[in-house]
Design a protein that fits this description.
The complex is a heterodimer of chains A (about 110) and B (about 110). Chain A has no helices and 11 strands. Chain A is mostly beta strands and about 110 residues long. In chain A, strands 2, 4, 5, 6, 9, 10 and 11 form a 7-stranded mixed beta sheet that branches. Chain A has a 4-stranded antiparallel beta sheet with strand order 1-3-8-7, with no helix packed on it. In chain A, strand 9 and strand 10 form a beta hairpin. Chain A starts with a strand and ends with a strand. Chain B is mainly β and about 110 residues long. Chain B contains no helices and 11 strands. Chain B is globular, with a radius of gyration of 13 Å. In chain B, about 40% of the residues are buried. The mean pLDDT of chain B is about 95. Classes of the chains: A mainly beta (about 110), B mainly beta (about 110). The interface between A and B is medium-sized, with 24 and 21 residues.
Chain lengths: ~110, ~110
Amino acid sequence: DGGITQSPKYLFRKEGQNVTLSCEQNLNHDAMYWYRQDPGQGLRLIYYSQIVNDFQKGDIAEGYSVSREKKESFPLTVTSAQKNPTAFYLCASSIGLLNEQFFGPGTRLTVL
Amino acid sequence: GIQVEQSPPDLILQEGANSTLRCNFSDSVNNLQWFHQNPWGQLINLFYIPSGTKQNGRLSATTVATERYSLLYISSSQTTDSGVYFCAVGSEGAQKLVFGQGTRLTINP
């Protein structure tokens, strides 16, 4: 099946710990994205990557880091510098930037 | 940057009713997508429609790019249509989608 997978579905961490969220796609898409959604809000862009070994900051990149070593994978690390990390995180991919985006099922992160 | 406004913010209807959701945007776009977010948070692609009209079953969408708005029509609503509907746009020269705040649709049996 072609699609985007995110793991884990739910994640609980203590304050001050770094945590890495996984995003994998087998759609052969070049572009990948990470979004954050807070309750009752729309999505905000954290980071995006147009191609392997390249990524750019989005609107709310502070406290987050990413890597793009493989076309299929775009992991997101939520660092201890992120002041309010509890949120729903969604990964997306597209053939190229501004082509139709497709989303994974999301990861709910709760920092205790 | 581009601004996206969705209306109404909330819509409550009885099963079988028709609904129209609106998305206004402040600049020229070369990408416009409509999504349905289900109760588990999954974003389901409904339409990729930077201009023109498309139909898919009971759903249809129209984007009038020159007047900077898009409409999503849902006919003969079912309870499974409940959820939040998002419009997202990409403006020329930008390299990202900007999301509206969503319309929360509740269909009562």
